[in-house]
Amino acid sequence: MRISNVNIYRADLPLLDESYNWSDGKSVRVLDATVVELVTDSGIRGYGECCPLGPNYLPSYANGLRTGLAELRPTLIGLDPLDIEVVNRQMDYNLKGHPYVKSPVDMALWDILGKFTGLPVCTLLGGRFGDYVPLYRPISQGSPEEMVERVRHYRATRGYRRFQLKVGGSDEMLDAARIRAVRSALTDGELLVADANTGWLPHQAVRVCQSVSDLDVYIEQPCATMDQCRQVREASACGLPFILDESIDSLDSLLSMRGAADCINIKISKVGGLTKARQMRDLAVHLGLAMVLEDCWGSDFATAAIAHLAHSTPEKHRLMSADFNTYHPVRTGHLAKPLTNDRGGMVAPGDRASVWSRTLPL
Q1: Does the pTM of the predicted model rise above 0.85?
Q2: Is residue 163 within 8 Å of residue 347, measured between CB atoms?
Q3: Catalytic residue among 166, 270, 316, 337
Q4: 115 labelled catalytic
Q5: Which H or E run contains 27?
Q6: Is residue 267 annotated as part of the catalytic site, yes or no?
Q7: Domains of the chain
Q8: Residue of 267, 270, 276, 316 marked active site
Q9: Which residue among 53, 58, 67, 305 sits deepest, i.e. has the most Cβ atoms within 10 Å of its Cβ?
Q10: CA dihedral over 113, 114, 116, 118, signed as positive or negative
């Protein structure tokens, strides 16, 4: 089997909510997603997706993604899509860095492998652990009262019981008030993550952590660097669990995080695709870490890949995942059955080769 063509599609994903706001005043209303279709001479087609969260979240942006894919496209023709590691090494040779550009190609390779073998991708990634992946809902930054109301809405309408509160900015005591207000609105068994998205300076992060140290809350990526996050954890002595996200983008970063956090966030496109995400996942399991398994954003294809990566992760090590395809009205793929259920969880169907089986017109 050989790759005979590479098609690149664009899809705008307007949010069902008015906007999505996070640290330091960053905000988006419409996401720009790119879908890659790998066509093979056997007739099997594979699909992958990457959707950066605007140009100022991670070092990635939509136009750069498509420019990079145009650069890679001729180097992919003629390769065997079943040789996933070979194709990944070729991409790394032909384009230095830019892991987000390679991610949708790698995702499409796994889609092809699933269709070729007739196995669910979660089986190919290591096996299916359990039948339920807990989902979280991000809570866009607003006043404490607005954020409490959003939590209540998502709990009542979609069954979410895990929430990621968007904090981070110039007023750290307002962030502490946001955390306290939302935590007080949660019930037993519900989980809260306060995600600053690198938005605090160390002294601000220390103040917040000490202020909310009596609460049941995770602190995610309080500062810009891993060393700063480690410094905050030591200086605050708050006893709260920390999650690293933006600082974790490779195996090397994972190996150097000792003392900085208890959990990590693995985003498929941030690390370069399912192949590298699986490597990082396996190392994290070995190191005894819990994980948020997701991507930056996306539609049906990215959500399906998230579901299969999460399902192939031991249950003890998966903290939560995301169902981004429910955040907007656009359908880019044909799903065999829903990925979510009313318990606020996600199930990757195991009765077909792949749940990201084909695109609709884009």
Answers
A1: yes
A2: no
A3: 166
A4: no
A5: strand 27-28
A6: yes
A7: 3-117 (3.30.390.10), 124-346 (3.20.20.120)
A8: 267
A9: 305
A10: positive
